[in-house]
Here is the input.
Amino acid sequence: MKGKRFRSINFILWMSFLAFAAFILLLTWVFQTVLLRRFFTEEVKNDLQSIGGDVYRNLALLRGAGGEAEAIDAYIALAQYDNPSVNIYVLDEDGACLFPSKLEEGEAFGIDGVDEEVFGLILGQLRKAGTDSGVIVRIDDGNYVYSARFMRADAQAKDHYLYINYSTELSNSAFSIMQKELVIVAVTVVFVALIISALLSMELTRPIARFTRAARRMAKGDFSVDFKGNYTYAEMDDLAETLDYAKEEIGKSDELQREVLANVTHDLKTPLTMIKAYASMIQEISGADPEKRAKHTQVIIDESDRLTSLVNDILNLSKIRSGMDTLKLQTFDLSEFIHTVLERFGYLSEKLGYTLERDIDDELYTEADMEKIEQVVYNLVGNAANYTGDDKKICVRLKKEEGGKIRFSVTDTGKGIPPEEIGTVWDRYYTAGETHKRPIKGTGLGLSIVKTILLKHGFDFGVESEVGKGSTFYVLFPEK
Here is the structure.
């Protein structure tokens, strides 16, 4: 037997909530550290490209119009004021700062955002491009530099370069804060997930634990347990109702089993006792008297037949219910078949004074197992003979109904069945109030056999009864 892995609902819910929380946090982390930064980088480049292009064009106009240093300085100051994240410089190819002119002559490297190595890289890229198109270079710490060349009309003169440093210090600080907050959020989410999963699992497992305790009590034979209760979920209410229904049915089956066992034991004991007693009488008393011996042996024969009938009924019932006895379906004339079976009850009229009325339509065909249906008809008519009234009247009908059905019914004039026992009459060993009391004929298992056979065929059947006026047992056969 392979080893089973048992995991509680609490564990599964905890792991599910933690996995879900981890998945959400992972998505958030990926978005923040990868997608958001990539988006931010593109935005920075686009913003820097836009700022650099505007500053380059305006400075080119000012320089071309012979603008004074004060005007150029003023424009640079205004541009930096409008864009607080940038520092704007105009450098020559040696790196000396030309504007803002307030800086000391030759000062450049070392001031805010101007890096000698970066400037050298920019010069190489601009000379290689051979145009005045701007380039953007990212510095290791995350800052960016935009640079463009001002072409000189005089070939002997040195070129000037626009150098704009774009600081991402505030953005990096914001990202750092977001990462710290994400850690706090992750811890909080995991903690909340554990609490929610614990509360939810407790809510789910409480009724399941109650069902388990009740089921264990029921397994020990205590059918007084009640699965119903005030549950939060509709599914739990449905499960409780189903378990209660199963409990009631199992209780009925258990009670029926005990009753059948008691009755079968009683019925087996009686003929065996009679057989032994009369065999002893023959041996000790009537062995030499032919007349007495014949009477005693007849009793033994009758009791043996009775015992054989009981054993056969028990075996047939067990075979049908276990599925060992398969159906052999065939189409046959049900009308003629009913007449044939009723001929076996001719002795009721001839010797016992019964009145057997027939109201059977001709040539009604059905599909079923003839041997099993013979048991059904025989047991229903025999049951009516056992429990009909003092007038000993039985009525057998076979009529065609709407919807392609044939209704077969057997009516007696007996005491009837109380309404509260209508649903259990098919399952009882004897009729209510007659426990351990033998019927006129038969073994007491006839209706159980009828029910089992009809259920196996899938035919509708039932009983209609009124106390004091008799009962009608009916079966609906499909018409062919």
About this structure: The longest helix spans residues 9-64. Residues 226-322 form a domain with the Helix Hairpins fold (CATH 1.10.287.130). The mean pLDDT is 78.
